[in-house]
């Protein structure tokens, strides 16, 4: 039911006082004034109710989750955007309601804003969001409504396997036993399922899961050894970023490391800045140790870009650049390509060498590169080349609209 | 503070209305005072029409109690109507309507 504000309560009190005066002095004018306040309160209530109903029925919620098939206890990032037709004179706030079995709280947002928050689903089974809570107010009334039917998408949560503790399988398929009972054997196990994307290997489609949900799902494997990813943090320079952007970037990186450690039995951490390796933490399962390695990071002074010491990766890429023009220019570019190819074989880059050593040390099958991808990206090109040389899957996490060096397997927006 | 100041002005206006004692003058003055009190005057003619009707009831009855009782009944009916609308909106919000 709608609630009166302090203003309405004061008007009602004034009306009652006038009604009392009307009785005492038998004044029709006082009775009219008292009655007019009653009419006023009813009129404003009717208007507020009509506006609120129009607002509620025009409300649409678009909710995106990082994963819809998850393990019990895993973190899920939720982005919710609510749009509605805003009646004049009304203030509107909306709060997303996480599933009842989830921990985490959604922020309060206005219409057209996107609320981003993280939840952990603590109970297995199918679950859904609780909808949204719409709160609206004008100077005279306020109202809150829990709209439960705006609850898409549904989530499917697999339980944490209790058998793992006794199986002795400590280095593969952590928490995956419920979805892949073969994980106790040697070989890759299923880390998670995700919707099929164009370009995925059809051999990784899980037909049973796809038939059940009528949508193609592919298996994400942990890898043959360990299954722990290498998380690479590329620090931006202070010229290319501001404190707010860097704070958000740090939060994304910390969340990613925490998730990698909790959901995959650990991860390796490498912090780079331009052509330098600042910190390296191979194969850790201790979140505290990883957070210590991440602590105190800040935008750096601009480094010397690596395009002056390109190494074999960049030179090979430059040699493959498309040749335009014609005549003299074409022959010149062709000759340049030959020269670059020759230098690519001979060129040595200390950074590429150090990365090669680090990659050999971590024995990861997957590299997650977190970068703001601003300014010089020559060091990223070298890193990606080294990872691909070792047959690793490279996933780059970068802001939307940034240019990523070629050769990566997937790009995720942060 | 702005709201408090305006409410004080409203109270002052009401003292003036009671002091006037004339029903027609009170009606006109009340319409002006409440118009000044409001920020958003959309739908105000509807309110004026309801007030004129209420003043007519007072003038026709020549009593104080009867119009106030009628208003109280209207208040209860309005409350019930709003409750019904709210119930239907709750059903819709739960996806049952």
Task: Summarize it.
The complex is a heterodimer of chains A (414) and B (97). Chain A has 414 residues and is an alpha/beta fold. Chain A is 35% helix and 26% strand.
Number of helices of chain B: 4
* Overall shape of chain B: extended
How many DSSP-defined strands of chain A? 20
Largest sheet of chain A: 6 strands, mixed
Q: Describe the global form of chain A.
A: elongated
Stretches with pLDDT under 50, minimum 5 residues of chain A: 162-187
Annotation field: number of helices of chain A: 10
Q: Mean pLDDT score of chain B, rounded?
A: 88
Rg calc of chain B: 18 Å
Give the terminus-to-terminus CA distance of chain A: 40 Å
**Broad structural category of chain A:** alpha/beta
The CA-CA distance between the termini of chain B, in Å, is 43 Å
Q: Helix amount of chain B, in percent?
A: over 70%
Helix content of chain A: 25-40%
Average pLDDT metric of chain A: 79
From N to C, what is the helix and strand string of chain B? HHHH
Query: H/E element string of chain A?
Result: EHHEEEEEEEEEEEHEHEEHEEHHHHEHEE
Question: How does this structure look, described?
Answer:
The complex is a heterodimer of chains A (414) and B (97). Chain A has 10 helices and 20 strands. Chain A has 414 residues and is of the alpha/beta class. In chain A, the strands form 5 sheets. Chain A has a 6-stranded mixed β-sheet with strand order 17-16-15-18-19-20, sandwiched between helices. In chain A, a hairpin with a 2-residue loop joins strand 16 and strand 17 (276-284). With 97 residues, chain B is mainly α. Chain B is built from 4 helices and no strands. The longest helix of chain B is centred in the C-terminal third of the chain and has 29 residues, at 65-93. The radius of gyration of chain B is 18 Å and the shape is extended. The model of chain B has no long low-confidence stretch (mean pLDDT 88). The interface between A and B is large, with 46 and 47 residues.
């Amino acid at each position: 039911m709608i609630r009166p504000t302090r203003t309405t309560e004061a008007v009602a009190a004034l009306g009652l006082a006038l009604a009392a005066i009307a009785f005492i002095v038998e004044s029709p004018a006082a009775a009219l004034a008292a009655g007019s306040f009653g009419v006023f309160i009813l009129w404003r209530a009717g208007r507020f109710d009509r506006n609120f109903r129009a607002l509620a029925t025009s409300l649409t919620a678009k909710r995106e989750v990082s994963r819809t098939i998850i393990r019990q206890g895993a973190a899920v990032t939720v982005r919710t955007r609510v749009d509605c037709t805003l009646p004049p004179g009304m203030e509107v706030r909306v709060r997303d309601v996480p599933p009842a079995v989830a921990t985490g709280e959604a922020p309060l947002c206005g219409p057209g804003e996107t609320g981003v928050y993280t939840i952990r689903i603590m109970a297995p089974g199918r679950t859904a969001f609780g909808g949204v809570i719409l709160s609206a107010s004008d100077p005279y009334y306020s109202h809150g409504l829990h709209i439960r039917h705006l609850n898409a998408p549904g989530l499917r949560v697999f339980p944490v396997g209790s058998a793992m503790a006794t199986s002795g399988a400590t280095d593969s398929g952590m928490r995956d036993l419920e979805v892949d009972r073969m994980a106790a054997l040697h070989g890759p196990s299923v880390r998670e399922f995700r919707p099929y994307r164009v370009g995925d290997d059809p051999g990784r489609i899980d037909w049973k899961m796809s038939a059940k949900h009528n949508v193609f799902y592919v298996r994400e494997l942990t890898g043959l050894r360990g299954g722990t990813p290498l998380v690479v943090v590329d620090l931006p320079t202070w010229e290319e970023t501001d404190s707010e952007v860097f704070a958000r970037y740090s939060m994304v990186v910390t969340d990613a490391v925490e998730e990698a450690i909790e959901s995959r039995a650990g991860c390796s951490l490498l912090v780079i800045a331009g052509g330098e390796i600042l910190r390296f933490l191979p194969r850790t399962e201790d979140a505290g140790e990883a957070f210590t390695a991440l602590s105190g990071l800040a935008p750096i002074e601009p480094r010397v870009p690596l395009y002056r010491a390109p190494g074999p990766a960049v030179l090979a890429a430059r040699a493959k650049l498309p040749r335009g023009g014609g005549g003299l220019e074409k022959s010149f570019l062709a000759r340049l390509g030959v020269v670059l190819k020759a230098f690519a074989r001979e060129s040595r880059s200390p950074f590429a060498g150090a990365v090669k050593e680090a990659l050999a040390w971590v024995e990861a099958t997957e590299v997650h590169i977190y970068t703001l991808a601003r300014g010089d990206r020559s060091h990223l090109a070298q890193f990606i080349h080294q990872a691909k040389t070792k047959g690793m899957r490279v996933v780059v996490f970068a802001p939307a609209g940034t240019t990523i060096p070629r050769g990566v397997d997937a790009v995720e927006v942060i | 503070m702005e709201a408090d100041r305006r409410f004080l002005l409203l109270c002052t206006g009401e003292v003036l209305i009671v002091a006037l004692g004339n029903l027609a003058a009170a009606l006109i003055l009340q319409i002006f005072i409440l118009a000044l009190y409001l920020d958003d005057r959309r739908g105000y003619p509807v309110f004026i029409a309801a007030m004129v009707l209420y003043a007519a009831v007072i003038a026709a009855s020549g009593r104080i109690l009867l119009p106030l009782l009628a208003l109280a009944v209207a208040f209860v009916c309005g409350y019930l109507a709003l409750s019904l609308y709210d119930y239907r909106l709750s059903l819709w919000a739960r996806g049952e309507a």
